[in-house]
Amino acid sequence: MTMAYEKDLVCRGFIADADLSSYQYYAVEMNSDEEIILASDANDRAIGVLQDAPSAAGRPCLVAVRGVTKAIGGAAIDAGAAVEVGAGGKFVTLTTGPIAGIAYTACGADGEQFSLEFFTGE
Known about the structure:
Elements: E1 7-15, E2 27-30, E3 36-38, E4 48-50, E5 60-72, E6 82-85, E7 91-93, E8 101-103, E9 113-118
Antiparallel strand pairs: 1-5, 2-3, 2-4, 4-5, 5-9, 6-7, 6-8, 8-9
């Protein structure tokens, strides 16, 4: 299995709504207060992938909004597969949710890192 890598990332700075220190490389979305929260299921449209680990609400955080980023899988994912947000902000193979990108490397199992070309679309 190829090691996860990052390339050509476009990142934006935001403020975390909560302690996200355990969620580096997970899918995130924006709440109504324009703060970053963990994306939680396939119906969520992620705005990006968390690049750091803010330890409390109100802390700055960096979110990759485009490009190839490391990401955390929620199950095995084949290289080349389209992905969506799964439970707990992990990425899974696309079934019914909005597309969140394409896996550039395979993910062997739940909790493993893989490379994701992140984008949002229909």
